[in-house]
Amino acid sequence: MKNGKLNYIFYWILLLLNLVVSCGLDVNKPTDFSISKSRLSKKWVLANERGKVDKGAATHVVLSLEKTGYFLVYDTIIDSRFVAAGIRKIQPISKGQWRVDKNKIILNHLLPNISHKEIFKIELLERDILITEDSVKIKHTYIHINN
Question: CA 117, 72, 45: angle at the middle one, nearest 5?
């Protein structure tokens, strides 16, 4: 009976150990998940590092994802010297249509004489932070802006 009890305890210890090891998720390893389009439909400023926009920059790159499925990427001039010199405050970079496929943002750029598709894997989406990874494994951090 004593040997049976030890086997029973050993079985549960192994089961719990297996559970702990299998649930020990690597936080750097992305998992598949689905994102709704409405959570992404905002204006996002490209930041240099997580949570911080470069305060010394003359411009900010903005990714505007509209609920209608259209997007616009533009530079917004934040340095008053450039605005005073007559440079338009918004300088369009690209526009097109966008969609979500599970945990990926797909941007179909519609440029004159050419179309171009970019796919970004969503690494993190919080209320005011979006982190994506492009096809060459470069991470992009965006901060949500209100306007």
Answer: 105
Q: Does domain 37-145 have CATH number 2.40.128.490?
A: yes
Query: What distance in Å separates the CA atoms of residue 94 and residue 62, rounded to the nearest whole number?
Result: 11
pLDDT digits (tens, 9 = 90+) for 60-101: 899 999 999 999 999 888 888 877 888 888 888 999 999 999
User: d(Cα 1, Cα 106) in Å, to the nearest integer?
Assistant: 62
Report the distance separating Cα 69 and Cα 61, nearest Å.
19
Residue matched to tokens 């797909």: 106
Q: What integer pLDDT is reported at residue 71 of this predicted model?
A: 96
* Contacts for 105 with CB less than 8 Å, ≥ 6 apart: 40, 65, 98, 99, 119, 120, 122, 132
Query: Is residue 58 classed as helix, strand or coil in its secondary structure?
Result: coil
Domain regions of the chain by residue span: 37-145
Give the pLDDT band (50/70/90) at residue 55: low
Q: Give the pLDDT confidence score for residue 42 in this predicted structure.
A: 94
Q: Which two tokens stand for residue 89?
A: 């405050």
User: Structure tokens of 114?
Assistant: 């050419």
